[in-house]
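#dry-run=false #mode=assembly
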Amino acid sequence: MPTEKNCEKNCALKKEVIIPLDFSSAREVFDFLALFPQGEKPYVKIGMELFYSEGPEIVREIKRRGHKIFLDLKLHDIPNTVKKAMAALSRLEVDLCNLHTAGTIEMMRAALKGLTRPDGTRPLLIGVTQLTSTSEARMQSELLISASLEDTVLRYAKNAKAAGLDGVVCSPLEAARVKAACGKDFLTVTPGIRFAESSSDDQVRIAAPANAREMGCDYIVVGRPIIAAGDPLAAYRRCVKEFLPI
Ligand code: C5P
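#status=ok
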């Protein structure tokens, strides 16, 4: 069950631009973060590449530097294993972490139990629905899921809600339907963001930051358009301006 502390965070639903630190070494991460002036601490995402390369200490160090952290390890295993792994992650004091909703409602409930600390607090927990790199044709032909991609994402989101999760990762194109089905306080965290003129890379279901805002996304995760830009700081600020206009 969400704690009061989580509810405060969750119900406020402050919109955020999250930068994935998709690097393989601490050196590259710190060089990247050094591009930001002292008072500007972007919300960052630590994914598998960095976590598996540098281990939990990189999480502690980035936290010490004052950043909010989304730990994106996409857990997916039997309920007992996920529960124990989540208990270990809860001690890292991250703000947000995730799992694959395909692991079933039972697995998600076990994850929440593991993540909840003895004092009742826990990081927010969201579920990955279908990866934004997956097209409907691939999902249907390779995974034999005959429903539409949107209906599949919606079903995963409803399962996540039933299990007590705080939200889902989905494409911006699905955010409005997820909100309509699961409630306005159910977080939608959306990768697959590209500036109007950027390449889509390997992402398939994409939107620009301003469209993502119109579609009701709460947090957008913007990687290559920022970290591979000639001027990453300017690209980040442009993203914030387009997603959160004052
Ligand atoms: O560079 P790009 O903007 O495509 O980066 C997207 C980030 O979001 C990557 O770190 C990727 O692992 C992550 N992600 C995703 N799709 C999901 C969940 C996470 O692209 N469904």
